[in-house]
Amino acid sequence: MTTLAQVLVWTGVAVTVAAATGLLTTAGTRRLHFVAAITTCGVPLVVAGLMAGAAAVPDALKLAVIGLLLVATGPATVVAAARAMRNPDG
């Protein structure tokens, strides 16, 4: 794994750990902000690092698809959870 790949992966891990720590220390709907940070910042960094260290192009493409799906659906999931928390009756 190249140095760039390692830096990207470890930066993504650091963002994820920091957001998870914030998630555990806050209460209520503010916790959703930390979930959004993981899906929009942590995941792309980790996926980019793994793509940089991928041995073959098909592996990198699979990682790109996974990363795009997580980045595309993460914010929508956070919004849906926030709406469900605001209106629990339906």
Automatic annotation (TrEMBL):
Q: Which InterPro entries match?
A: PhaG_MnhG_YufB (IPR005133)
- The lineage's top-level taxon is Bacteria
What is the annotated signal peptide range for this record? Answer: none
The record's GO molecular-function terms, alphabetically, read: antiporter activity
Transmembrane regions listed in the UniProt entry: 6-27, 34-57, 63-82
Under the heading Pfam families, the entry gives: PhaG_MnhG_YufB
Q: Which GO terms describe its biological process?
A: inorganic cation transmembrane transport
Q: What is this protein called?
A: Monovalent cation/H(+) antiporter subunit G
Q: Which UniProt keywords apply?
A: Membrane, Transmembrane, Transmembrane helix
Report whether Transmembrane shows up as a keyword of the record: yes
